[in-house]
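PROTEIN DATA CARD
Card holder: WD repeat-containing protein 44
Chain length: 571
Origin: Triticum urartu
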Amino acid sequence: MMRRVDDSSDEPSTPEKSLAARKSRRRRRFGWLRRLGIGACVVDAEDDDEANSTSSSSCRSCAGKPGKALDRVKVRPYKKRSKELSAVYRGQEIRAHKGPIVAMKFSSDGQYLATGGEDGVVRVWRVVEGERPDELDFAEDDPSCVFFTVNENSELAPVNSSEGTKSKQDKSSKGQADPACVVIPHRTFALSQVPVHEFHGHDDAILDLSWSKNGDLISASMDKTARLWRVGCNSCLKVFFHNNYVTCVQFHPTSDNYFISGCIDGLVRIWDVRKCLVVDWANSKEIITAVCYRPDGKGVVVGTITGNCRYYDASENRLELESQVSLNGRKKSPLKRIVGFQYCPSDPKKLMVTSGDSQVRILDGVHIISNYKGLQSSSQVAASFTPDGDHIISASDDSRIYMWNHVNQLAPVTSRVKTVWSYERFFSNDVSIAIPWNASQSRNSISLACNIPSLRQEVSGDLCDIQDSSTSRCQTEDCLEDDNMFRLPSGNFTLSRAFLAESAPRGSATWPEEHLASNSATASTLRKSQYKFLKASCQNAATHAWGQVIVTASWDGHIRSFQNYGLPVQV
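Structure generated from the sequence above:
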C-alpha cells in the first residue's frame, strides 16, 4: 500500500495537473496515516495556499502579546457537582507552522515547548513570564465574578471595580456569564513570540517528539529517520535511520544515551545515542503506534494498531516480552489502535492508555481499573496527566478540550471497571493537541485545602454592633493574625492587611450610625460578599485547577494558550 501511494509513476504533463496529483497523493497518504492514528488530519488545498505564506517571519508578526487577552472561555461541565475550570481565559495565539501541527511536547523542566508538523520543521519556543493583565479590566469585562489579586507573598487583595461596573453589568450580556471567584496571579504564562530554534533536516512530516531529562530533543518523521537536536545548537547532532515511517519515540527516563523507537515495520528498537546503533529490538508483527518507558526505565510498553499493549522487560537495555493486554478483545479493528501512553505522576503503577475508540483507560499492571469517556469522536492524539496527576487533559476531533478529575475517582481496586462520565470541556478552534504545562512548581504558590477561618474570624456576615465596632476591629485583626490562611492543595494564601482593614467596621463607639460615611459602608459590604464567595469556593475545593495552563496546537498550524484563574464553584 505504501509503495502504491508513494511511488505512483503516472505524472501529468501540465504543471496544474502535476500540482493536483501531488495534492491528491498527499491527501491519500495522510488519510491512510490518520486511519492508523499515526499522522495528522491534513487540511484541504485551500489551507495549503494560506500556509504557503507562513514562515518564521510570519510567526513573529502573528504572535500575540503575552498575558494581554481577557477573553473568557465558556466551559461546560457534564455530570459534575462543581466546576474547577470556572474562569478560563484565552491567552496567546501564534501562527507556528505551515499546515497541521502533529506533535507538541514540553521539556521536562517546563522551560521549552517543542512543536513539529507536516512541514517537517521542528520549532522550539521558550516559556517566558507574561505581562500581568490589569485587574480592573477583569472586573469591568466580567462583572458576574468576584476578583482578587495575589502577590508574590501569596497575599490576597480584593479588586475594586469602578462604580460604573454595576450599571455596565445591568446593560451588558456578559452579566449573565457564570459567576466565579477569580484569583489573578502575579505571574502569567507566555511563550516567546518567536521560536528560539528552527530545526531543519527532515524531508517529511514530524510524527512524534521526545525530550530527555537534560534537554536533548529527538524527533520521529515520515522520512524514515529519527533525529537528535539540542537547544543551543542549530544543526542536527545524529540521524537514526529506519526501514519505514518512524511513528513514535521516547528517551530513556534516567539516561540520555538511550531512546526507544516504534516503526511501521513492526519493530521496536532501543538505540545507543552515542554509537548511533541499535542495542536491541523486538518484532511485534504489527504496526507500532505508541511506545513508553516505565518511570524507572526498566520496562517498556508498546502499543499497536490492533489495540494490543505489549509489556517488555528492558533491564540492561534488552527487550524480553513479559505480558500482553488486548483492549480489542478478539475483534481486531483500527478504531482500537493505541494512540499513546503515560504513567501517572502521582502513582507510577498506573498507566493511562489512549485508544482510537475515544476512550481513556487506566491500567494497574495488566488490569483495567477505570475508563474515562466523553470524547465525541475518535482520538488522534494521546491524553495527558497534569503534573500533579489530579486531572487528565485531552483534545478531541470535535474542536473541544476535555478535562476529567482523576484523583477524585481513585478507589480500592476491584474486579469491576469504573466508568467515569463526568468532565468539563471548552471550545478551541480546529484543535489537534492539548497538553498541560508541566511546570508544577511554577503554578504560583496557591493551593487549596479546606482550612477556612472560623465565623468569629470572618469579618462577620452579621456585623457586630456599631457601638462595639472599634473593639471588634482590633479583635478581628488579632484573631486573623495567625489563622487567616486559606489553603488550596499545594500551598496557601492569606488575606492582605488592606482586605482586613477595609472589611472591618469603621468609626468609634461614640459615633452615631448615621454619621458613618456611606462609601465605608459600601466598601464593607463589598468585602463581606467577596469574603463569603471566597470561603465558599475554598470549601468546595477538594481538588482545584487554579493556575492550570493548557497549550493547544491546531490543524491550521496555530499554538494557543489557556489559563484558569477561577476557584471551584458549585454547579
